[in-house]
Amino acid sequence: MITSDLHIHTRYSHGAATPAAMYAAALAKGLTLLGFSEHSPRPRGFDYRHEYREQLSRHLPDYAREVLALKAAPRAGTRGPCRVLFGMEMDWLDGEEDFTRAACRAYDFDYLLGSVHFLGRWGFDDGAEPWKDASQEECESRYTAYFTAWEAMIRSGLFHIAAHPDLIKIFSVEQFHIWLAKPQSQGQIRRCLTALRDAGMAMEVSSAGLRKACREIYPAPPIMALAAGLGLSVSFASDAHGTDDVAYGFARLASYARAFGFREYVFFDKGRRTSLPL
């Protein structure tokens, strides 16, 4: 059974609810650990069409204050007390490592998620239109570039958990699986996962893809098999943006992970890893 959700967003970025409302949903769903991981502000030039940078920057102190208040006064839900962890999801951006390092030090975070949402200055998950007419070759070039950036993110040593490992498949899942079956693609991902293991990080297994266009858990089965073979640690997440998303699909995630031989999962508190039975 999964009782922790380590990837949660709020109204202070592009979510729909307050931290308090997200916490109430966690209590109702029987979680014993909720990790808030709001987005970190990005520098200008790394932009989405519906950009939330200014709102996030303005309200970051509010986010920190509200989450820390929940952390200081845990309440009991259906399975007992639910702890809160104070985290953030950091974007790995080309040429912006100094910016990212500063963001990682902005608060005394319990843990940090590392994510890749941009290839160069393009937010590749910001709508399906740029993917509609892309050839298989164009898609494969994007997948290779994504995992190159993902490996650099891992090797930076800044993060505890690698979020939604194959987010790049969001609008092109069939093309992604064609690429993923190729030996050179498997080799690239194995190198990434080996770096992740050696860095002491965990790989996020996320139900968010089930709610997205790809309709598939992050990461895909071949990546799960590689991760299991390398002895990686995993964490679980919903990437919730509203109260209904908290712990979404967790029974399915548990069955999915067990099918690959995973029997425990982890969380990080001030960099200290703790394992829980699955």
What does this structure look like?
This protein is an alpha/beta fold and 278 residues long. It has a single domain, classed as Metal-dependent hydrolases (TIM Barrel, Alpha-Beta Barrel), CATH 3.20.20.140. The chain contains nine helices and twelve strands. The protein has helices spanning 19-28, 53-72, 97-104, 129-132, 136-155, 173-180, 183-198, 221-229, 250-259; strands at 4-5, 33-39, 75-77, 80-91, 111-115, 118-119, 122-123, 161-162, 202-206, 233-237, 264-269, 272-277. The strands form three sheets. Strands 1, 2, 3, 4, 5, 8, 9 and 10 form an eight-stranded mixed sheet that branches. Strands 6-7 form a two-stranded antiparallel sheet. β3 (75-77) and β4 form a beta hairpin. The longest helix is centred in the first third of the chain and has 20 residues, at 53-72. The termini are close together.
